[in-house]
Amino acid sequence: MHKLQETISHFATDGVVATVRPFGNGLINDSYLVQTTGDAPDYLLQRINHHIFQDVDRLQKNIEAVTAHIRRKLTACGAQDVDRKVLTMIPTHDGKRYYFDGENYWRTMRYIPRSVSYEKIDPASSRYAGLAFGDFQRMLSDMPEQIGETIPYFHNMEFRLQQLHDAIRNDAAGRVASMRTIIDEIECRATDMCKAEQLHREGKLPKRVCHCDTKVNNILFDENGTVLCVVDLDTVMPSYIFSDYGDFLRTAANTGDEDDRNVRRVGFNMAIFRAFTEAYLESARTFLTDTEIEHLPYAAALFPYMQCVRFLADYLNGDTYYKIQYPEHNLVRTKAQFALWQSVEAHEAAMKTYIESLL
Ligand code: GN1
Ligand code: MG
């Protein structure tokens, strides 16, 4: 039997497996679509990157807690089609949350039928996404289980800069000399960009349960263009609401690609910003503090900046974290995120004015 077919056979799925093929564009885990014959559901089989998610047991427990809580909420409010609005994890035949083959960790969930994800979306879909993230944060605000950080200091800007400094000091791939200009520009703005940690220390900014990987391609839409659910729940953890707001805009409001080789294509799309922000505030305004709202433009700039720092650190380390498709991929990503960050900052005043007009 083919290795992947053998792997899926350990899970308590229905039906007979017809095909297993690579799926999606994630930079961390590997995903496979498992198609079955007849009426049985299809599944998504994933190899968990355990170098990055080192406590797989904890990770899978978190996902179970989060999906169970969302399912209860949806059921309580009489939502239709609940199985397409929240992930269903499939246990192994012996009731475990994942399967370890001696080398790799695997998990399986139901594939949500008739769902699509996009790399690019328009203002109308961004509106749905804004409502969806507000609801997601609200639904998780009273989750009884305590969940911890699945990756310590994941969206902590001070920590990400620290990692960059370590990468510069080690210069493992001998690439630091060629990156001086961009490193200097990053450094100039470091204190300002660490404002979230500063506000948190001063007791002015709470942590809430957030998704922490709200890139556009982690949102599933139905055939009518409304949001079904947010997937890729590995990083659900306590964070500042800036995480979900900012990372969505980083990917959705970029006129170019995350790894665009042509930085002139990269820019901040204000129409997407407006549609998303209006809807997000509509849904999240009931629980956001004034400080959180006031810093949304900062959040929009923070995530391209943070991603630029993370891609650059990985480039300097010799590409050990993100999957790359060609040798300079992390350099191209760094420059594209840098360009996006600059464009977002250029729109800061306009963002502030727009947000004020909504309040
Ligand atoms: C990773 O797995 P994926 O591609 O959804 C990363 C995110 C980054 C993103 C950049 C665990 O997400 O934090 O923003 O790549 N996830 C992790 O594309 O590091
Ligand atoms: Mg993903």
Q: What this model shows, in words?
A:
There is one protein chain. By secondary structure, the chain is of the alpha+beta class. The chain has 2 domains: 2-110, Phosphorylase Kinase, domain 1 (2-Layer Sandwich); 123-358, Aminoglycoside 3'-phosphotransferase, Chain: A, domain 2 (Alpha-Beta Complex), CATH 3.90.1200.10. Helix content is 44%, strand content 12%. It has 13 helices and 10 strands. It has helices spanning 3-8, 56-76, 123-139, 157-170, 180-188, 190-193, 195-201, 242-252, 270-284, 290-294, 296-316, 329-346, 348-358, and strands spanning 17-23, 30-36, 43-48, 89-90, 99-100, 105-110, 208-210, 219-221, 227-230, 237-239. Strands 1, 2, 3, 4, 5 and 6 form a 6-stranded antiparallel β-sheet that branches. A hairpin with a 5-residue loop joins β8 and β9 (227-230). The radius of gyration is 20 Å and the shape is globular. The mean pLDDT is 95. The protein binds 2-acetamido-2-deoxy-1-O-phosphono-alpha-D-glucopyranose and magnesium ion.
Question: In the CATH scheme, what's the topology name of the largest domain?
Answer: Aminoglycoside 3'-phosphotransferase, Chain: A, domain 2
Which bin fits the share of residues in helices? 40-55%
- CATH class membership of the largest domain: Alpha Beta
CATH architecture of the largest domain: Alpha-Beta Complex
Structural class category: alpha+beta
> What small molecules accompany the polymer chains?
2-acetamido-2-deoxy-1-O-phosphono-alpha-D-glucopyranose, magnesium ion
- How would the global form be characterised? globular
Q: Please, what is the CATH homologous superfamily of the largest domain?
A: Aminoglycoside phosphotransferase (APH), C-terminal lobe
